[in-house]
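Record type: monomer structure entry
Structure origin: computed from sequence
Chain ID: A
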Amino acid sequence: SSEWREKEWREEEAIKQAPLSAKWRLVPGNVRHTFTHFHLELSVLTGRVEKKSEKGQIWSAPDDFSIHALPTVMKKVIRHVAGGAYPDHQSH
């Protein structure tokens, strides 16, 4: 996760903000979400890592995402990355 800012992140900048090293790739398209006072548009990068959870982290398999209380915007990100493969994560 990168910090929020109004200026668009370049891909190289975003990768430098990544919490883990991976071969990151840009997912085509964007995720759009509206909060009460502003609109957010996200570009999403994905990568595969082989790492166990450290203190304060939760790693979850995609099939287990529905057991977590995720914000609506993160549910939209999951659906976007999965190409709609998780119908139980509906956006509102």
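Annotation 1: The chain is about 20% helix and 20% strand.
Annotation 2: Helices lie at 11-17, 72-82.
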